[in-house]
Design brief:
The structure holds two protein chains of two kinds.
Chain A lengths: L4 E6 L5 E3 L19 H11 L7 E3 L5 E5 L3 E7 L2 E5 L2 E3 L5 E3 L5 E6 L5 E5 L30 E3 L22 E7 L8 H7 L4 E3 L7 E5 L14 E2 L4 E3 L7 E3 L6 E2 L3 E4 L5 H5 L6 E6 L4
Parallel strand pairs in A: 12-20
Antiparallel strand pairs in A: 1-4, 1-11, 2-3, 3-10, 4-9, 5-8, 5-10, 6-7, 6-9, 12-19, 13-14, 13-20, 14-17, 15-18, 16-17, 16-19
Chain B lengths: L1 E5 L3 E5 L3 H17 L6 E4 L3 E5 L4 H10 L12 E6 L6 H8 L3 H9 L3 E6 L6 E4 L14 E4 L3 E5 L2 E4 L4 E3 L2 E5 L20 E6 L4
Classes of the chains: A mainly beta, B alpha+beta.
């Protein structure tokens, strides 16, 4: 029997297992979770011949290092970074062979925040409610990686892609997020709505998988009464009492008691996942399609 | 009833009371079951039901505006009984808010049939309604940094049971040993929207 597993040598600042997430359980208070930069996760899976639902690793800023117990094909994408196998540089954004026992080191992000590491066969930790994703809000799924942890791998079913390099979007120098107003824009002053879509914000260092927090002008409420808890969607821009908008990402709570001024379409969120703290943000009002 | 668009593929349907929200939730579940509504998530809350993952939210909104929502159907589901020790550290404060002696809090609470209005805050955390409005209590001025799993707590019109240890600002009146959330169990959540609940006092103090 082959020993298909990954040993974690350097867990990095925050490396989690992610797949497509566990949508469909919001009514039980279960966040959807899943890779924040979905297209990057899908690409690295495709590069190693995995199905789209295979679980990958999502790193945060400073990468991670793993040692497979059997020979695997790996691919690293998302935030660009230096990738080495036993110290030798190998391609980023392309399938690479990692021999049994060799060290795959995913370096610190040169730009962007989150790199994605797919390994042939996928990471096969026990699924919870149909997903292997780590959910940092409610603690579902596997814990974040720790040094010395061992992650089981599945059996590869398909050959890896035959490519040398793949184009990937560069992490944003300026994050432009489209927004459709509402459902609670009328809880804010007209001035606040104008400020929100015309002034510059920056990505706050307090951002995480739950939400992209912002620094910038506070948004003033027209209605100051308490909002009864209501369901919130991915991409909702919630405004807590400090007035600074928070864009809800994959691990967001399923209900919330602060008004949502606008919603960012899901297509714009992968760029938000790669925006480093300090990146300028512009919220651009668009018509509902 | 008012359907507010949320992004490109969701609707927040707002009604005027918790009862109407529960009736609307039941009706939307019925429509999904019969196949006339295709939606990824139906998330009830205090005064709203969120429909997320709609292909044509404008059409769903106009369908809803043109239709009648029957009152919530009589609940056919069994009652979940939660054994509880009324030993919470805020029992005396709650008794003061209610204007009754502390032992009466347990009697009034245990005599009430609750139903899960909605879930949120954490997997398996249900917002239970059933107490008359005169028993509403405020949240604690200072939230606790750690409320133990199984704590039975009150805030506003709601009763809740903490599925796992977490920070919390609700008033703690008791403790249950029943496991509210176990992801290896099917279903993982003991309480889901619509579930009827009774608290059964067990020996303590």
């Amino acid at each position: 029997m082959t020993d298909r597993a990954l040993c974690v040598v350097r867990a990095g600042a925050l490396t989690t297992v992610q797949d497509l997430g566990r949508a469909g359980h919001a009514h039980l208070g279960v966040p959807r979770s899943g890779a924040l930069d979905g297209p990057a996760a899908a690409l690295v899976n495709r590069l190693v011949g995995n199905a789209p639902e295979a679980a990958v690793l999502e790193t945060t800023l400073n990468g991670c290092a793993v040692r497979p117990r059997s020979t695997v094909t790996a691919a690293v994408g998302g935030a660009p970074c230096r990738v080495t196998v036993d110290g030798r540089p190998v391609a980023w954004g392309a399938p690479v062979r990692v021999p049994a026992g060799a060290l795959l080191d995913v370096g610190a992000a040169v730009s962007g925040v989150r790199s994605y590491v797919a390994v042939s066969g996928g990471i096969t930790v026990e699924p919870v409610l149909g997903s292997r994703s780590t959910d940092l809000l409610s603690g579902l799924g596997p814990p974040p990686l720790t040094d010395g942890a061992v992650l089981p791998l599945g059996t590869p079913t398909r050959l890896h892609a035959r490519v040398d390099v793949t184009p990937q979007p560069a992490p944003p120098a300026e994050l432009v997020l489209r927004v459709t107003p509402g459902p609670r824009d009328d809880w804010f002053t007209p001035e606040a709505v104008r400020v929100f879509t015309s002034r510059a914000y920056r990505v706050s260092p307090a951002s995480n998988r739950i939400g992209l927090r912002t620094d910038g002008p506070a948004l003033e409420r027209a209605l100051t009464r308490e909002l009864p808890s209501e369901g919130v969607v991915l991409g909702a821009v919630q405004v807590p009492p400090d007035g600074r908008p928070v864009v809800f990402l994959a691990d967001h709570p399923t209900t919330g008691g602060y008004p949502v001024i606008a919603v960012v379409p899901a297509a714009d969120l992968p760029a938000a996942a790669q925006a480093v703290p300090g990146t300028p943000i512009r919220f651009v009002a668009v018509r509902r399609r | 009833m008012r359907a507010l668009p949320v992004g490109d593929d969701a609707l927040l349907v707002e009604v005027s009371s918790g009862e109407e929200a529960q009736a609307l939730h039941a009706e939307l579940l019925r429509r999904r079951a019969e196949g006339s509504l295709t939606v990824r998530e139906i998330v009830p809350a205090a005064r709203t039901v969120l429909l997320d993952g709609l292909t044509d939210p404008a059409r769903v909104a106009s369908d809803l505006a043109a239709s009648q929502v029957p009152p919530a159907p009589p609940r056919a589901r069994d009652v979940v009984e939660l054994p509880v020790r009324y030993d919470g550290p805020d029992l005396v404060d709650v008794a003061a808010h209610w204007g009754v002696p502390p032992h009466e809090v347990a009697r009034i609470h245990a005599d009430t049939e609750f139903s899960v209005a909605f879930c949120g805050f954490a997997p398996g955390f249900g917002y239970l309604t059933g107490l008359p409005p005169r028993y509403d209590v405020p949240r604690r001025a200072t939230p606790r940094t750690a409320v133990p799993a199984g704590a039975v707590a009150l805030a506003g019109p709601y009763t809740g049971v903490y599925p796992r240890s977490s920070p919390g600002g609700w008033q703690l009146i008791g403790t249950t040993d029943t496991v509210l959330w176990d992801h290896t169990r099917v279903p993982a959540a003991l309480l889901s929207p619509g579930t009827r609940v009774r608290f059964v006092p067990v020996g303590s103090s």
